[in-house]
Amino acid sequence: MLKVSNLVTHYGTSQALFGVDLEFATGEVATLLGRNGMGKTTTISSIMGIVKATSGSVLFDGEELIGRPSFRIANLGIGLVPEGRQIFPNLSLRENLIATASNHLGMAEPWTLDAVFDLFPELAVRQSSMGNLLSGGEQQMLAIGRALMTNPRLLILDEATEGLAPLVRQKIWSALSALKGRDLSILVVDKNLTDLLKIADRHFIIERGKVVWNGASDELRTNRDVLHRYLGV
Asked: Which of 48, 63, 77, 202 lies 20 to 30 Å from 71 when distance is taken between CA atoms?
């Protein structure tokens, strides 16, 4: 589904990524882990074309993404839930969802408002509320629903549960587990390792702009050296 090879990215003269490599298959849940400032968000931004990569390759289902504008990349079937949510504050919850609705890939059973409300029942009762009046948890659910309304084949979440209450975090993880059963590939950046180990198939740890370890949940769970060295667990 996604294969990133030797991805290098600069911000001006400062190099942020030093040859990132990662790969996972259709229907898998993968994580991108690491301490703050190690290149996780830059990797996602480079994949999405938000930040221009200096060199390397990003193949999405065989299609090269490097050099394409962000909207073209999104139209290929990648939905992004960005850090900070970035919902439209002056639109209602319902309007936020409708604004992004599309089915460029001709999905036989596309996402609808009702389907999003089934996934997050809390949103159904707040349909008419303006975006800036929603709680942090509601905004995050809305950001996920908004991405799903584009009918992606790959969903990327940057800081999926950052700053959320434990109960809301569990609702997010439950939703991602349900999405995994729909053959949707998912790439998650988050710090809640315990929850990630339950739902993810593979993990990639990034350190100073380069992937330094990758493996399955069982491998990471029992590798105390890797947990301590790169994640501080």
From this structure: 202
